[in-house]
Amino acid sequence: MTTTQTSASLRRPERPAATGARRPAGRRREGAAWVFLSPWVLGAVLLTLLPMAVSLYLSFTDYDLFNPPSWVGLRNYTQMFTEDPRYWRSVAATLTYVVIAVPLQLALALVVALALKNMKRGKGFYRSAFYAPSLLGASMSIALVWRALFNDGGTVDNLLGTGGWVNRPGWALLAVALLTVWQFGAPMVIFLAGLQQIPAELYEAAAVDGASRWRRFLSVTVPMLSPVIFFNLVLQTIQAFQVFTPAFAVSAGKGGPADSTLFYTLYLYDRGFVASHMGYASAMAWVLLLVIGAVTAVLFRTSRSWVFYAFEGDDR
């Protein structure tokens, strides 16, 4: 082999033409991706980020929807925390509602999901029937029907003889919470999907070891279902903090009786659109956002001690 042939064989092949051809194609694909993403980006900027920025600015102003906003600094926040007793009553009502409604809803959803899992016939029908309230329950019409059921002379009054719940301070909030519990269809479907993913071999091994049904539920179902339980807990907690329609319908927009159903979002609506204190309402909205973020962070932090992921054992 000659020197010329050796140097030619060792020379690195040149690929400028191929590289140059790939770059325009890559840029075209990137441009096409941004074209398809542009509706979402514009929607996020115009309908979410920009309104949030305006709301944050308004929270430091005195704004009544009719006159230009005037800067007041932290006055809305100090008034909220130190001078407004109804604000704290709305906080108490909302926290009570979250503590009552979310656990009851998830417990009922899990019980029904366990019953549907082992059902041989009619599973699709019952799954659809139980899911239907989740589609209808958030509407104003259903909330008004619920109010009629729990009003004086309503169905609950005629059956139990306890009087109308919506007119009693100790019972009105429970009536609203039961409406939320009735809408257990969405978490039920998620629980059912999670239950169907649990390997049957785990139940068979537990049965061979002599574990009862209750022990199998505690030692197999709950740990294997814990990621789904955590997902439903976070989702339903966030939604519970933002509940509005049931409280508005049951109390006719007043939060009564005696502010027992004055939920946070209902009082925010009252301050912003009834009293025209939009700056104060914006401050309330940002406090709610921070509280929901803090509660979600706490749930994620505590989940490390009780949520089990099957792949964690494979990584060790």
UniProtKB/TrEMBL annotation:
Q: Which domain of life is it from?
A: Bacteria
Q: Which UniProt keywords apply?
A: Cell membrane, Membrane, Transmembrane, Transmembrane helix, Transport
List the subcellular locations: Cell membrane
List the transmembrane segments.
32-60, 95-116, 128-150, 170-195, 216-235, 278-300
Please verify whether the record's keywords include Nucleus.
no
Q: Where is this region: Disordered?
A: 1-25
Chief localization: membrane
Q: Which GO terms describe its cellular component?
A: plasma membrane
One annotated GO biological process: transmembrane transport
Q: How does it sit in the membrane?
A: Multi-pass membrane protein
Cite the ABC transmembrane type-1 domain residue spans from the record: 91-299
Question: Mind telling me which Gene3D superfamilies this protein's record contains?
Answer: MetI-like
By sequence similarity, the record places it as follows: Belongs to the binding-protein-dependent transport system permease family.
Q: Tell me what this protein is called.
A: Sugar ABC transporter permease
